[in-house]
Amino acid sequence: MDGILIGRIVNTVGLKGEVKVLSYAENNSRFQSLPCIFTKDKEFEINDCRFHKANVILKLKGIDNLKDAESLKGEDIYFKEEFLEELPQDNYYVEIL
Questions:
Q1: Are 77 and 16 in contact (CB under 8 A)?
Q2: Number of domains observed in the structure of the chain
Q3: What CATH number should be reported for the domain holding residue 57?
Q4: Is the pLDDT of residue 97 over 80?
Q5: Spatial distance between the Cα atoms of 18 and 70, rounded to a whole number of angstroms
Q6: DSSP readout, 20-42?
Q7: Which residue blocks in 1-97 are alpha helix, DSSP H?
Q8: pLDDT per residue as tens digits for the range 67-84
Q9: Which of 4, 30, 32, 56 sits between 20 and 30 A of 86, alpha carbons compared?
Q10: Phi, psi (5° rounding) for residue 30?
Q11: How far apart are CA 10 and CA 70, in angstroms?
């Protein structure tokens, strides 16, 4: 998988296709700066991002109903390496192979 693991879709929210994400990011606001995420099979544009307690709620383009959202439950989600944030001087990302 060529991407940075950022979370897992753990449930659906409502009837309009939103998904609840268990975030692996240090700060959940990281999702607000991402234009898209992808699973092992498909890339999704992020149409909306909001927060509820410790969870991230995403509205993904093309996921418009409960059935579509349910099909994503349990999927790990990733973002492209090109969207890594620049770190302060003398800070580094660690890649685990």
A1: no
A2: 1
A3: 2.40.30.60
A4: no
A5: 9
A6: EEEE-SSSGGGGGG-SEEE-SS-
A7: 66-70
A8: 999 999 999 999 998 887
A9: 56
A10: -55, -35
A11: 9
